[in-house]
Design brief:
Layout: H1 3-16, H2 19-26, H3 30-44, E1 49-51, E2 56-58, H4 60-83, E3 92-98, H5 100-117, E4 121-127, E5 141-146, E6 154-161, E7 163-167, H6 169-175, E8 190-192, E9 199-205, E10 208-214, E11 218-220, H7 223-231, E12 237-240, H8 241-250, E13 254-256, E14 260-262, E15 265-271, H9 279-289
Parallel strand pairs: 3-4, 3-5, 8-11
Antiparallel strand pairs: 1-2, 5-15, 6-15, 7-12, 7-13, 9-10, 9-14
Helix pairs in contact: 1-2, 1-3, 1-4, 2-3, 5-9
Amino acid sequence: MDRVQAARVFVEIVERGSMIAAAEHLDMSRSMVTRYLGEIEDWANARLLHRSTRRLSLTPAGEQVLESCQALLKVAQDIPLALESPAKMPSGQLRISSAHLAAEYLLMPAIERFSALYPNVTIELLISNATVDLVEDRIDLAVRIAHELDPNLIARPLGQCASALCASPEYIKKAGLPTSIQALSQHACLIYSYFGKHSVWSFMENDIPTSVAVTGKLIANDSDVLLMAALRGMGISCQPLLEVQKYFDSGQLINLLPECEPSIMGIYGVYGSRKHMPQALRLLLDILVE
């Protein structure tokens, strides 16, 4: 068994005066606390506690083991301080998975600043819209844009992403201008494949949530492809506003139903563990939040 954890359990039992109190503080079952205590007594080859109905007290061997356990925990506590001392610059490599949009508008400015501050860290960017397995793909950070995340994921909110409906003047001349959200169901919509062939687009209209089922003959797993299709007059696309504002300004695309705002998506940094987060990853996340 883990000797550091066993030492922690023993110290908690002594300091809190009971095995039940130690189990509650450590968020551990009483049987597990008993097991750790039994293991440490086996290692010491001695009985460490006098047990009575009212209180626990240390045996002479227990007093010696308590001092050793406290010293062990102090060493274990100092290890991360030594590794992550402000005097020691972070180094190593971070593997980051991100969709193209988040990489261009969020990650690149953050990485530029991060690399200037911490030049000993190498960053490997994997650009993909697919959901990755952090463990299997050895990903330190996945930047995701989504309406909602799996609640089991460990994630830090980084911001929000507004969207807009768009179509080219050529498409509007051919198919007409949609005058309501529900009218979108009669148009050729360009579907993002992760939402399925029969996609539902959600909006806020006069502060009231509403949605419409849309279909189309072009489905793609890349929003840039759908944007190119919209520019070619092939249909209506729901795109991140950051991506399409320049086309609105140039007149290449028309902002459709601007009074009806597509649902805001969240931008998240997803990672594997809060406990053992590398120093470099924590520093990059802080910059991304800013």
